[in-house]
Specification:
- This protein is an alpha+beta fold.
- It has one domain: Electron Transport, Fmn-binding Protein, Chain A (Pnp Oxidase, Chain A, Roll).
- It is built from 5 helices and 12 strands.
- The strands form 3 sheets. Strands 3-2-6-9-10-5-4 form a 7-stranded antiparallel sheet. It has a 3-stranded antiparallel sheet with strand order 1-11-12. A two-stranded antiparallel sheet has the order 7-8.
- The longest helix has 11 residues.
- The radius of gyration is 19 Å and the shape is globular.
- The model has no long low-confidence stretch (mean pLDDT 94).
Amino acid sequence: MDKHHTCVFTHEELMSMEQSLRVNVINSILGFKSVALIGSINDKKESNLAIFSSIVHLGASPPLIGLVVRPDCVDRHTLTNIMETASFTINHINENIMQQAHQTSARYPKEISEFDATQLTEEYKGNCKAPFVKESHIQMAVSFREKHELSINACQFVIGEIQAIYFPKECFCVDGFIDIEKAQSITCSGLDRYHRTQHLARLSYAKVDKNLSSQKLEYKYST
């Protein structure tokens, strides 16, 4: 990569860009992101499934996640369902369901479930009201806790608390680490590019007076 041929966009140039071009620039430059399917259902038992790449870790005690929902200038079925039932699921995407997952970003009317439209399978288990994606290898049941409107752009920041996690036992390490790569979870960049992952290293806890070392994954269950 030739560093002498650097492209520069100033804030003024970004804001003067055609919107779709600016959206692609900003979404891709922020790097690789987690991507998952959010399953939800309303009080009428109408299910919804939507792909999200704005899920963030907020803390482990209690286990909290954050979810950014764009402004409700159009119907946001996921947000509406979450507010009605206080429940949703997070489902990792793998290569086998990548195209179906991407298709859920289409604007289906409320009465059409993306599960049906994409031929993904609804799965209900535990005490979770919302549907899981049966074809997903890693699934989480989440309860709604808080919603905050961001005054700067009218996005909604939804906070949920993880109630249950389902994952392949062969991905579980003795120290609690879950190997999502082994579970075949994929990642994304921008709004429409999907990636496999290849780990480089798991490094030791950083300390001022100690050199870093690579840590080998030790699985709790034999495969």
